[in-house]
Amino acid sequence: QVELEESGGGLVQAGDSLRLSCVSRVRTFGTMGWFRQAPGKEREFVARITWSGEPFYSDSVKGRFTLSRDNANNSVYLQMNSLKPEDTAVYYCVSTSKGGPGSDPNRYDTWGRGTQVTVSS
Predict the structure, then answer these.
(1) Which of 6, 59, 2 shows the shortest CA–CA distance to 33?
(2) What pLDDT does residue 101 have?
(3) Do 80 and 88 form a contact (C-beta atoms < 8 A)?
(4) Per-10-residue mean pLDDT for the chain, 121 residues long?
(5) Integer CA distances (angstroms), 59 to 4, 7, 65, 113, in order
(6) Is the dihedral of CA 28, 32, 34, 35 positive or negative?
(7) C-alpha 24: how far from its chain's center?
């Protein structure tokens, strides 16, 4: 059974918006967030949010993406605005019980299956 389930991906044009959702099937008290991976590229940190709701963003999405969290529903939401073709990737929801995971993918112990985001120019 998948512990993290993503939704909301799709095909949009440059400048459009998308909202990704991630629901955890278990109560998650640690950090949750998103990574992405484009074809032929390494996994890239996108954003993370602490249990208390403090978000952190990669420089590539800062000012365009907003990450929020609903602890009552074990969910996180990634609002993506002003999308660019370089945002095209599979987006993975992640969670961890480890403190201070930062942007290191190895410190996140639970991964969703991913949702495809494609931005056309």
Answers:
(1) 6
(2) 84
(3) no
(4) 91 98 92 96 97 96 98 96 98 90 91 97 94
(5) 25, 24, 10, 24
(6) negative
(7) 13
